[in-house]
Amino acid sequence: MPSARSGLSAGGDNQQLNFFPSPRPSIQHNRISDWVDTELCEAIRSLQLVPGTPLSEPKLAAALNVSRAPVREALTRLADQRLVTIVPQVGTRVAPIPMSDVVEACFIRTALERGAFSRAIQEKSLNLDSIREILARNTEAFARRDEHAWFESDDLLHQEVFGLAGVPHVWKVIRGVKVNLDRLRRLAFPYVFDTPGILAEHTEIVDALASRDESAGLSVISQHANRIIDESVLFQDRFPSYFTD
């Protein structure tokens, strides 16, 4: 289920952190906490750290080869993002997935991607070579049931819509608000590979770009972005402790 990005694993209260983060950059103290924040956020996003996993400041500091101060700062920021819960005198744990955040992320993503699609098809020169290559990789990943390749190519395909619209940096906004959505998407494996409609919708998005069919494109983007909400009850039933309202 988790990607192989860092190897930070979940477990019980006495867990051992098998954490292999990216190399620590040569940065000043006030930026070290940013790096720690990114490492932990991505581990939570990818479900290398599942909801409920205890987070020990000393263990995290040792794994990241930093002092406890930047770890504490990073955990405070993650708490503000509702990604961890900090209970004084009790401890810190990875927070459950708030479905309200997932709904908001889907709303933002749908609105922005629909806007990007409408803008893209107005471009006089619309080169679809890149998005078609990404779609081919996505199709191959689906056939192989390759979770990592599927997730990566899925994001790249939607990111490319913003690139075609000439607003590539908007994807950074979306990625910033969809951490909890991505956690839910990770839980959807391997269910995704038994749902061919998901892949078909990717194809429909590319086809609508090619034909400059705004109605079809906006419709499939809305359907595709909100599919995960409609199907989330399956995962909430299976992993009830991973979710909150």
UniProtKB/TrEMBL annotation:
<keyword id="KW-0805">Transcription regulation</keyword>
<dbReference type="InterPro" id="IPR008920">
    <property type="entry name" value="TF_FadR/GntR_C"/>
</dbReference>
<dbReference type="InterPro" id="IPR036388">
    <property type="entry name" value="WH-like_DNA-bd_sf"/>
</dbReference>
<feature type="compositionally biased region" description="Polar residues">
    <location>
        <begin position="12"/>
        <end position="25"/>
    </location>
</feature>
<dbReference type="InterPro" id="IPR036390">
    <property type="entry name" value="WH_DNA-bd_sf"/>
</dbReference>
<keyword id="KW-0804">Transcription</keyword>
<dbReference type="Pfam" id="PF00392">
    <property type="entry name" value="GntR"/>
</dbReference>
<keyword id="KW-0238">DNA-binding</keyword>
<feature type="domain" description="HTH gntR-type">
    <location>
        <begin position="30"/>
        <end position="97"/>
    </location>
</feature>
<dbReference type="GO" id="GO:0003677">
    <property type="term" value="F:DNA binding"/>
</dbReference>
<dbReference type="InterPro" id="IPR011711">
    <property type="entry name" value="GntR_C"/>
</dbReference>
<dbReference type="Pfam" id="PF07729">
    <property type="entry name" value="FCD"/>
</dbReference>
<protein>
    <recommendedName>
        <fullName>HTH gntR-type domain-containing protein</fullName>
    </recommendedName>
</protein>
<dbReference type="GO" id="GO:0003700">
    <property type="term" value="F:DNA-binding transcription factor activity"/>
</dbReference>
<dbReference type="InterPro" id="IPR000524">
    <property type="entry name" value="Tscrpt_reg_HTH_GntR"/>
</dbReference>
<feature type="region of interest" description="Disordered">
    <location>
        <begin position="1"/>
        <end position="25"/>
    </location>
</feature>
